[in-house]
Amino acid sequence: MSASPSALGDVTPQRMAFDEPLPLQSGAQLPAYELTYETYGTLNAERSNAVLVCHALNASHHAAGTYEGDPKSLGWWDNLIGPGKPLDTRRFFVLCVNNPGSCFGSTGPMSLDPATGQPWGSRFPVVTVEDWVDAQARLLDRLGITRLAAVIGGSLGGMQALSWTLRHPDRVAHCAAIATAPSLSAQNIAFNEVARRAIITDPDFHGGDFYAHGVVPRQGLAVARMIGHITYLSDDAMATKFGRALRSGALGYGFGVDFEIESYLRYQGDKFSGYFDANSYLLITRALDYFDPARATGGDLAAALAPATARFLLVSFTTDWRFSPQRSREIVQALISNRRAVTYAEVDAPQGHDAFLMDHPHYHGVVRAWFNRIAQELAS
């Protein structure tokens, strides 16, 4: 077997079962449930060096390392997490939790409903960013971690990181919110709705209970992924990678695949529909739509963020039009209004929203320096 392509090496997922129901923002509750998670590094004797990583829409608890040395199993943020990397596992105990409602091990729509013995399917309750944060907090309680050295996330993960500072302000020392927003714009909600309609109108969806029919709404899920993928890339990135290049070198004068970009999107959609759950996609995009801390303060973001006591890092990317730098600056201004300590970096990167997953020197340099300061604080 070849050596792992990750500096962290091979990792093993863990599971934690909870018998006490989880109250949800909707007023419903999730009965007995399980959370799948991974940890990297060593928790110090004081239990003060824990860093929680929050995952985005289609990611999972597998943020770093590999499974049995398989390079295809590399964690989604492996370029950021590991020994000697910006989030250095020689200094920090890093953990990442798969959120309830997802489809990578934690309780979700594919799991069996204890009341019926059948998959939850359409009956799985709507979950929110706040619900995920509360579930993560329960896991930390079980692990004996009362206060996080930091919480970090990108995109939807950044929303969770922000929510941590509001729901559990005394438990978070530092917060890094990368390529995120204080709420979705109308345009972003619109993209999510079109993606959801593609799934819901697929004949194989069966109102969310397709498991019983032995089918998967693959076409709808593939189209949803294609829509989403377009929003993750910048126009410049698409132009550089694909331009108007033709798949076969000539026009086909039909409605098959003529352009390379069409081939790429179909490939991404087909691949996604083979491993992601349609009900999970609906739930997670709805959680994105619903996140809006300022709703409770009449739209006043500064008032909404007032409970936060953490020190913050905000990073945005110039070509990210889905979570634009302007949205990060809104958060920065609101925090400054509350006299909170904020570091802000606007990184010139061509990849669009996906830049937060890339190995960009400026971006990683900022994150490395920020975590170095936290490590020095812990050592002092």
Proportion of residues in extended strands: 5-15%
Largest sheet: 8 strands, mixed
What's the overall geometry? Answer: globular
Please state how the strands of the largest beta sheet are arranged side by side: 1-4-8-5-9-10-11-12
Tell me the Rg in angstroms. 21 Å
Write a short abstract of this structure.
This protein is an alpha/beta fold.
Write up what this structure looks like.
This protein has 380 residues and is α/β, with parallel strands linked by helices. It has 2 domains: 14-183 and 292-378, Alpha/Beta hydrolase fold, catalytic domain (Rossmann fold), CATH 3.40.50.1820; 188-285, Orthogonal Bundle (Rna Polymerase Sigma Factor, Chain: A). Helices cover 33% and strands 14% of the residues. The protein contains 10 helices and 12 strands. α2 links the parallel β9 and β10. It catalyses: L-homoserine + succinyl-CoA = O-succinyl-L-homoserine + CoA. Pathway: Amino-acid biosynthesis; L-methionine biosynthesis via de novo pathway; O-succinyl-L-homoserine from L-homoserine: step 1/1.
List the helices and strands and how they pair.
Blueprint: E1 14-18, E2 22-23, E3 29-30, E4 33-40, E5 50-54, E6 81-82, E7 87-88, E8 93-97, H1 129-142, E9 150-154, H2 156-167, E10 174-178, H3 186-200, H4 218-232, H5 235-241, H6 260-273, H7 278-290, H8 301-305, E11 311-317, H9 325-337, E12 342-347, H10 361-379
Parallel strand pairs: 5-8, 5-9, 6-7, 9-10, 10-11, 11-12
Antiparallel strand pairs: 1-4, 2-3, 4-8
Helix pairs in contact: 1-2, 3-4, 3-7, 4-6
EC number: 2.3.1.46
Subcellular location: Cytoplasm
Domain AB hydrolase-1: 49-357
